[in-house]
Write a structure and sequence with these properties.
By secondary structure, this protein is an alpha+beta fold. Helix content is 42%, strand content 13%. Strand 4 and strand 5 form a beta hairpin.
């Protein structure tokens, strides 16, 4: 190499050890001698490594270390192997924190597991696939075309499967929203359901009739340990198919861009509810036709999470939803109104949230009903594609939130309900902080 570049071997050794600069002249000699196209070295992989290191350096565990941007970039470029090793260790550390939070969340006070694990298993199954099932989506889209040509859902069920759709009073349905009567060949629907809910129930029943083998095969991929998990997954996949039948992928993906993800506008166009439409937005990850990846959460007024879906790599996909500073917990005071919010996690990641209450049940006097809140969240870099962000630009100061109290290191937070994992609580016999807990630095 020294001979090819017309320099001394010692100078080559010094450059290899980063003790001499690689000048523009040396670069030209390299390109000429070895026929190198330096455009190959301009990929974003180096910048991605720097960005990942900077994100990790913001963690509370490094707060007492001065890690400036120049040093981080120097490590990433000069010692990429070491940087990758550090990121693997950091990832393992965060995974252990999540695993510890999982164990605490899914055990009783005396350490025994409780039955909520079946729900956690199904959520992990959906999250691992980014809530996208290409085979079922394609089948559902084709079926939607057949349904449209066949005159709609009731006509299709009658002509193709021999089931007549009947709507019966709530007291006759005895607590059921939908029931398939094989003897009389009727699909019975609770007439208290609104139009979009009736359509969804018909679409879900049609999915069971048309795709039972495919749904069962998809569920089998989860290798669930309990029958509860299998049944919950089976229901979730059938609901996925129902959404894909009512909102076929190609048409829906085109509409979301044309309407800039306006959920109300999309719901009116497809005849679906606000929740059904928001749910469908989390499934648009077909290769080559991807749309904005969203995180979806549904909570009740007590903060219990009844649905959590994820089509991106969001840190609150497993434990998100517990921060009281998130507006998803505050929209109950303004029913049916869309509330937007910029949020920033302790590591500096920013997200854009769209939250609103949804109503279910009721339908006639005396029938029970319930209000829940839903929110869909995307990374800040996608927000300008949403109609909601034009009214709430990113120049607004973001709300500092945490994933969950036990995983959040914002020690000054006055809304904290419990201390974070690994932090020692200070005694308050001589000093009481404004925050519920005072912590040691280590």
């Amino acid at each position: 190499m020294a001979s090819d570049l017309d320099i001394s071997p010692s100078y080559v050794a010094l450059m290899e050890r980063n003790q001499r600069p690689v000048t523009a002249e040396i670069l030209l000699r390299l390109a000429k001698a070895y026929k190198i196209d330096f455009s190959e070295f301009t990929a974003d992989s180096g910048q991605d490594l720097v960005a990942q290191l900077r994100l990790a350096a913001r963690d509370a565990i490094f707060t007492d270390i001065d890690l400036n941007a120049v040093d981080i970039a120097d490590i990433a470029h000069s010692f990429p192997g070491f940087a990758e090793a550090l990121l693997r260790l950091y990832t393992a550390y965060k995974e252990e924190q999540f695993a510890l939070a999982d164990r605490r969340q899914h055990t009783t006070n005396d350490g025994r597991p409780f039955e909520g694990d079946s729900i956690a298993a199904v959520r992990s199954f959906l999250a691992a696939r980014k809530n996208y099932f290409p085979v079922l989506d394609t089948l559902s889209e084709k079926l939607a075309g057949r349904v449209s040509q066949g005159g709609g859902l009731p006509a299709f069920l009658q002509n193709e499967h021999g089931f007549k759709v009947r709507r019966l009073p709530a007291e006759v349905m005895s607590g059921s929203l939908r029931r398939l009567d094989w003897h009389r060949k009727e699909l019975l629907l609770n007439e208290a359901l609104d139009h979009s809910s009736q359509n969804f129930q018909m679409a879900q029943q049609l999915a069971y009739l048309e795709f039972e083998n495919e749904i069962a095969s998809t569920v089998a991929e989860g290798n669930f340990e309990s029958q509860n998990s299998e049944r919950l997954a089976h229901r979730a996949i059938a609901a996925y198919c129902a959404g894909a039948i009512l909102m076929p992928y190609a048409a829906f993906a085109k509409a979301v861009e044309a309407r800039r993800y306006d959920i109300d506008s999309l719901a009116r166009f497809f005849g679906t509810s606000f929740e059904q439409t928001a749910h469908r937005l989390t499934t648009l990850q077909k290769p080559g036709h991807e749309r904005v990846p969203f995180f979806f959460i549904k909570v009740d007024v007590a903060g219990n999470v009844s649905k959590r879906l994820n089509s991106g790599a969001f840190p609150f996909a497993r434990h998100g939803g517990g921060c009281p500073l998130w507006t998803v917990h505050q929209v109950f005071t303004s029913p049916r109104r869309v509330v937007t919010q910029w949020m920033e996690l302790p590591d500096g990641q920013r997200f854009f949230s769209i939250a609103r209450t949804v109503h279910s049940g009721g339908g006639s006097h005396g029938l029970p009903s319930v209000d829940r809140a839903i929110a869909i969240v995307c990374e800040a870099r996608y927000a300008d594609r949403l109609v909601y962000a034009s009214e709430h630009p990113q120049t607004h100061k973001p709300t500092p939130i945490g994933i969950a109290c036990q995983l959040c290191q914002r020690t000054e937070c006055t809304s904290r309900a419990e201390p974070p994992i690994g932090r020692q609580v200070l005694p308050d016999n001589y000093r009481r902080t404004e925050a519920p807990f005072g912590f040691s630095d280590a």
